[in-house]
Design goal:
Blueprint lengths: L1 H23 L3 H16 L1 E10 L2 E9 L5 H9 L2 E2 L5 H7 L4 E3 L28 E8 L3 E12 L5 E2 L4 H6 L1
Antiparallel strand pairs: 1-2, 1-6, 2-3, 4-5, 5-6, 6-7
Length: 171
């Protein structure tokens, strides 16, 4: 039990540090990169990205990975634009206003593979297992994008599901 409390305390302290860092950053590209970097550290995820909304299209503006990803596939991902539509990952998060926390994206709850999401078309989806996708919003303009995190790792570096408590902490 004390390990759980200690872990929650460390996460809370990390979030407080993250808030101070974010509040002081004025350069937007650096801010987005910092958000992804800190989210990876907080969740021990292997990959993260922010896709920013520009009208009915989303584009990756910050991506970090600690996994071996083919450079051509990564380049295709970061230079692509994704239409905001109901069947896409970002569409589910933004249009339906929900957080997706999936233990295994190889099979979605509806029984269909995540490879059908256009955001994953450039990757070999067998590299990914768990996913956490959160809406990014501002009080002034509403929904501005999606933070996607992939492959949460345990303290022993085993890939597994994201802790459901992390959702509340990151909003």
């Amino acid at each position: 039990m004390s390990d759980v409390i200690n872990s929650q305390f460390k996460r809370s302290a990390r979030l407080a540090q993250m808030g101070a860092l974010l509040a002081g950053e004025q350069h937007l590209p650096r801010l987005y990169d910092l958000i992804v970097s800190e989210a990876l550290a907080l969740t021990n995820a292997q990959m993260g990205a922010i896709l920013m909304r520009e009208g009915g299209v989303l584009r990756p503006i910050a991506t970090r990975t600690e996994m071996a990803v083919d450079s051509e596939r990564m380049h295709a991902f970061v230079t692509s634009r994704y239409t905001l539509e109901p069947g896409s990952l970002c569409g589910q998060v933004l249009l339906e206003d929900k957080i997706l926390n999936l233990a295994d994206i190889r099979t979605l709850p509806e029984g269909r593979p995540a490879v059908l999401w256009p955001e994953f078309a450039h990757f070999k989806t067998d590299q990914f297992r768990s996913l956490l996708a959160l809406p990014l919003r501002t009080p002034q303009s509403g929904y501005m994008g999606v933070l996607i995190l992939l492959n949460a790792r345990s303290s022993s570096e085993e890939v597994g599901p994201f802790d459901s408590q992390i959702e509340e902490m990151m909003l």
